Amino acid sequence: MSTAITQRSASAPERGPRALAETTADETAAQDGRPDPLRFLVSYNASNLTKVVTELGRATGAYWIDAVQRIAKPGDAARRSLLWLSAMADRREPTWHLPNEVALSTPFALLRDFTEARHRDDDVVPTLVLPPQAGHSSTVIDYSPQQSQLAMIRAAGLTRLYALDWRPATTATKHVTITDYLDVIDRSIRRMGGKANLVGDCQGGWLATIYAALHPDRVNTLTLAGAPIDFHAGDSVIAASTRLMAGTMGMAPYKALVAAGGGNMPGSAVLSNFISIQPQSEISRQLQLLENIDDPTHVERYRVFEDWFKYTQDIPGAFYLWLVENLFWRNRLIRGRLTVGGRRVDMAAIDCPLLLLAGSTDHITPAPQLFAAAEQVGTPPADITYRTASAGHLGLFMGRDALRHDWPVLMETVYSHSVPGTRRASAGTGGAGRAARRRSSVAAVADPRDTPRVPAP
Predict the structure, then answer these.
(1) What stretches in the chain show pLDDT beneath 50?
(2) Which Pfam families match (predicted)?
(3) Alpha carbons 185 and 212: distance in angstroms, whole number
């Protein structure tokens, strides 16, 4: 079950960026007591190998049992194999499902307006969602008609709803920088009225945090889901591999990848990296497809996920190299040493309500990487919400369990800070309103019971 903590203890460490001297990755590891990155990676990969062997054994046993049961139909195995290969090869470009209009267009990002015509004059602070940006389409926040983070947010009463859509990098946009991304967020919020609730998923979360620190007057509430803020906290294979590689070879390997991509980070390379982190998920997904190839519901759920996961897009090279060096390697955001456009990113400047959603099985962004944000911001403890969902990384953004049980609770809190007089409403009226919005937002997402699940990273 999900857990929530809405206030820190009085003994929590003092907030505010810590002025630390620059150190190498190895020195940092020694100081914080974490295991050697190489040792951690060896142990992690050995564990993964065991899981891969276990899954292959399970699938092989299931295959032979099924083959014996179908022995009277010798042509059936060939038919199923052809269907399996066809389903794996049938990829389509992911799409947005909710109607929207493009309110702002740049070569590297689009501002999409999901506000329905009847709600354009609603007296509610607008909400801007920043999707993940890791070589995949931004449509993960509107994953399917049955699993849409945007539909859930809108049903929670945050009816003036917008999202940024990160466009695939091209030769023309390979030099786009962090300042360009922050500028498009600022232009979007100005177009929305000058102040907004920011919701940042994964990479969109640290981007939202940087923006909020530089422009605290434009952020009404800040919600972060699966977002790395302290990039070196917790047991993270991404952090360990970056510290090991950059600590020994600097930025050379990453620059070589970008050079091979013509100045951009190839989305296919990012995908390969994600698959290598948990290869058992990829193997399990394909083998379960074979086992359930005659189940149209399972095949359709498989297709929807694969369309999003395997349809990759490149990342601007300059932006990618900046984030690897400054965030993943140097960890400058949490340490108070990050500068953007000549300005220091001071997280203590963030004083708006802060909502943090982590996944209990998130191997991409362990909970400590996210929850570390609470110790750096200037938000009063009573306005900081921690919540842990029973989900992995992607499940935080598109999983039906998280969308039905965790996001409605968080967005109800955001709503309470977004409508005049909401917090002053009487217990009876306010309670009834909250219950109605909660029911509406839960109903916006299909019930996950008795539905096939597709293994995802």
Answers:
(1) 1, 5-31, 72, 423-429
(2) DUF3141
(3) 10
Q: Are strands 339-340 and 264-265 parallel, antiparallel or unpaired?
A: unpaired
Please state the domain extents for the chain. Answer: 18-25+91-443
Q: What is the pLDDT of residues 182-236, one digit of tens each?
A: 999 999 999 999 999 999 999 999 999 999 999 999 999 999 999 999 999 988 8
In this predicted model, what pLDDT tens digit does every residue of 167-186 receive, in sequence order?
999 999 999 999 999 999 99
Which one-letter DSSP state was computed for residue 327?
I
Torsion angle defined by CA atoms of residues 217, 219, 222 and 225, in that order, rounded to the nearest 10 degrees:
-130
Nearest-5° Cα angle at 257, 30 to 172: 125
User: Which tokens go with 293?
Assistant: 């190839």
Structure confidence at residue 263 (pLDDT): 97
pLDDT in tens, 297-308: 999 999 999 999
Selected from 3.40.50.720, 3.90.550.10, 3.40.50.1820, 3.30.2010.10, the CATH number assigned to the domain covering 18-25+91-443 reads 3.40.50.1820
pTM of the model: 0.86
Render 125-149 in DSSP notation, one character per residue: --EEEE---SSS-GGGGG-BTTB-H
Dihedral sign, CA of 71, 73, 77, 80? negative
DSSP structure string for 7-52 = S--TTSPPPS--------HHHHHHHHTPPPHHHHHHHHHHHHHHHH
CA triplet 64, 89, 298: central angle to 5 degrees?
Answer: 55
